[in-house]
Amino acid sequence: MARSIWNTATTRLWSWWTSCTSSKKPRGQGFDAAIIGCFYDVGLQAAREVAERMPVVAPCEASTHIAATLGDKFSIIVGRRKWIPEMMENVIRYGMKERLASFKSVDLGVLEFHQDEEETARRFRKVAREAVEHDEAEVLILGCTATYGFYSELQEELGVPVIDPMIAAFKTAEFAAELKNRLGWSHSKIGGYESPPPEEFAPWRLEEQYDFGDMKTWLQRARA
């Protein structure tokens, strides 16, 4: 198991680019992998370029790959319909278009999932049952990292695997970190994930602008 996993939003990834490109663990904190903290998988490709040796994983990619091993077809339950087009682009990019049964929306925003959890669960049950009974989904994916805590009840009620995207991302990150640490397997640096030359960053003086010092102190400031 990985010694530790750093779960961070994509907007923070550039703050530690110098640590990644120098193949050192950020600020000596002992991180083995990084996780994009959004089901959109925003910035995943760029993050893998910047992280020279550290594995970077994301919830949608991790969830769809796990789902494809657990059933022939899966459905993704999202909050709002407007999320679907961009998420569909990722499903296609990950080679999972033929495995997707449907997208289902519960018409809730990120901040609304836990305002009335009984109502959220009711909506999840309704669209989940539709996905299984009418769309022939054999696996369900909750398509937002803010849907933590709902998968277990749905899974028990419907009798199909229901994937929590953050758990999927964390377990994938643990696996990726172990592969890297034990076998040296990480993102290829030939082609799409090739890291930009450090000299291209020098004129921007990013290390000075994003010098957060001690990581614990920076995290405390970020939450303030």
Would you kindly provide a written description of the structure presented here, covering whatever features stand out?
- This protein is α/β, with parallel strands linked by helices and 224 residues long.
- The strands form two sheets. Strands 5-4-6-7 form a four-stranded parallel sheet, sandwiched between helices.
- It is elongated, with a radius of gyration of 19 Å.
What overall geometry do the principal axes of the alpha carbons give?
A: elongated
Order of SSEs: EHEHEHEHEHEHEHHHH
Query: How confident overall, as mean pLDDT?
Result: 82
Distance between the termini: 31 Å
Helix and strand content put the structural class at: alpha/beta
Number of domains: 2
The side-by-side strand order for the widest beta sheet comes to: 5-4-6-7
> What is the radius of gyration computed over CA atoms, rounded to a whole number of angstroms?
19 Å
Number of helices: 10
Main β sheet profile: 4 strands, parallel
Strand content: 5-15%
Per DSSP E runs of 2 or more residues, the count of β-strands stands at 7
- What's the helical proportion of residues? 40-55%
Q: Which regions have little confidence, pLDDT < 50, spanning 5+ residues?
A: 1-28
Topology of this protein?
Blueprint: E1 5-8, H1 17-21, E2 33-36, H2 44-50, E3 56-57, H3 59-70, E4 74-78, H4 84-93, E5 100-105, H5 117-133, E6 139-142, H6 151-158, E7 162-163, H7 165-183, H8 198-201, H9 206-209, H10 215-223
Parallel strand pairs: 1-2, 2-3, 4-5, 4-6, 6-7
Helix pairs in contact: 3-7
